[in-house]
Amino acid sequence: MRTNKRTVWFLTLMSLVAVISIYYIKEKAPMPFDGISIFSSDMTETAEVPKKGSSDKQTPVFATSYLFEEMRMEVRDERSKKSEQLNAKMTSPDYTAEEKNEAFEEMSELNKRDSAEALLELQIKALGYPEAFVRTEDGDVKVTVLSTEGHSKQLADEITQYVLASWDDAKKVQVDFTGNQ
Question: Where do the segments described as Disordered lie (predicted)?
Fold first, then answer.
């Protein structure tokens, strides 16, 4: 049987569309959506009408969450470039075994730091904060937390003590709050 590439690609695409369609049809709950829900029968949930005389400036939480995603993407890009450099160094025949070993150790340290940061973010979220971003540099830990309740010295101290207790390499912890105050 003889088929051309276009037919094979078309059949592959159609089968992929069929699988994804069945997945979304069979799913019990709709996918979470950070913006305004378009296909909602109850419009009171989707649109909040501001009251007259209300001068409080409110920023949506999902817009701040995108800020956290942008920060994560910047860190991922920076670290992936570093990882590519280290990987190139390890596979290149121009370097000695000691230099390749140092590159391997640095790459494993980078992976260890990534996983520790992700774990700390999850643990801080478990404390009751909607979103958290953790970044480490040479023992300095910078924590940015999305807080809808505002911020206080007590909350910052709580996070600082938690980070110092959880992370052995943490020497200095800086906590920043962002979100609705």
Answer: 77-105
